[in-house]
Amino acid sequence: MILARVLGNVVATQKNSRYGNARIMLVQPINPDGAPRGASMLALDSVDAGEGDIVIVVQEGWSASTASTGEAGAAIDSAIIGVVDSIEQDTRKM
Amino acid sequence: MQLARVIGNVVSTVKNASLEGRKLLIIQILDSDLLPVGKPLVAIDSVGAGAGELVFWCRGKEASFALDGAEAPTDCTIVGIVDSESHVKSIGKKGATKGDHK
């Protein structure tokens, strides 16, 4: 799983029918310190995340499909599966 | 999934049997400001997308689930068409996304 910040959502009328009513969220992957990492991506919402939330995104098809639509086997490669309350990070050098 | 713009199409007569009748499009991946990132990809269309449209695509094995036969050899399938650019709700707000945790 990765951490990401929710930037907003995307509205699409014409989409794969298996997506159902799940919201399509635009998220920016981040480091634990909150800094953006890499390109933004889309993930289906399964936890009612909102704009500005820091979330946990799973990037594996079976999990993403099951979490967001209730069934496996849909063309979904990532889903939001949790909203982060806080992050504690050991800042000592490894 | 990621946002992308359809920037062209590919014609291929001889291809895997499970891809017959499928449209191959060239897409450019976009970031949240709808600016290009990375190199263009060849994607299979599953929703009737056309040139210039803003779409989103699915990567990996799951990409083949959008097609009738789950065995279709694809790792990049267009799975939705964004209604309009104003429907990408974060446009212009990227600067506000940096900063601390909540």
Q: Can you put this structure into words, describing what you see?
A:
The complex is a heterodimer of chains A (about 90) and B (about 100). Chain A has one helix spanning about 60-70, and strands spanning about 1-10, 15, 25-30, 40-45, 55-60, 80-85. Chain A has about 90 residues and is mostly beta strands. Chain A has a domain at about 1-10 and about 20-50 and about 60-70. Chain A has a five-stranded mixed beta barrel with strand order 1-3-4-6-5. The relative contact order of chain A is 0.27. Chain B has about 100 residues and is mostly beta strands. Chain B is about 0% helix and about 30% strand. Chain B is built from no helices and five strands. In chain B, strands 1-2-3-5-4 form a five-stranded mixed β-barrel. Chain B starts with a strand and ends in a 21-residue tail after the last strand. Strand 2 of chain A pairs antiparallel with strand 5 of chain B, so a sheet runs across the interface.
What's the structural blueprint in terms of helices and strands?
The complex is a heterodimer of chains A (94) and B (102).
Chain A: E1 2-10, E2 14-15, E3 24-29, E4 41-45, E5 54-58, H1 61-69, E6 79-83
Parallel strand pairs in A: 4-6
Antiparallel strand pairs in A: 1-3, 1-5, 3-4, 5-6
Chain B: E1 2-10, E2 24-29, E3 41-45, E4 54-59, E5 76-81
Give a summary of the structure in a few sentences.
The complex is a heterodimer of chains A (94) and B (102). Helix content of chain A is 10%, strand content 34%. With 94 residues, chain A is mainly β.
Distance between the termini of chain B: 25 Å
* Main sheet summary of chain A: 5 strands, mixed, barrel
Strand order of the largest sheet of chain A: 1-3-4-6-5
Give the overall average pLDDT of chain B.
Answer: 84
**Spatial extent as radius of gyration of chain A:** 14 Å
Oligomer: heterodimer
Helix content of chain B: under 10%
Placed side by side, the strands forming the largest sheet of chain B appear as 1-2-3-5-4
Largest interface summary = A-B, 41 and 40 residues
The CATH superfamily of chain B bears the name: EutN/Ccml
> How many DSSP H or I helices of chain A?
1
Number of H- or I-type helical stretches of chain B: 0
Strand content of chain A: 25-35%
Ranges of chain A with pLDDT <50 over ≥5 residues? none
- C-alpha geometry of chain A: elongated
Number of strands of chain B: 5
Strand count, sense and closure of the main sheet of chain B?
A: 5 strands, mixed, barrel
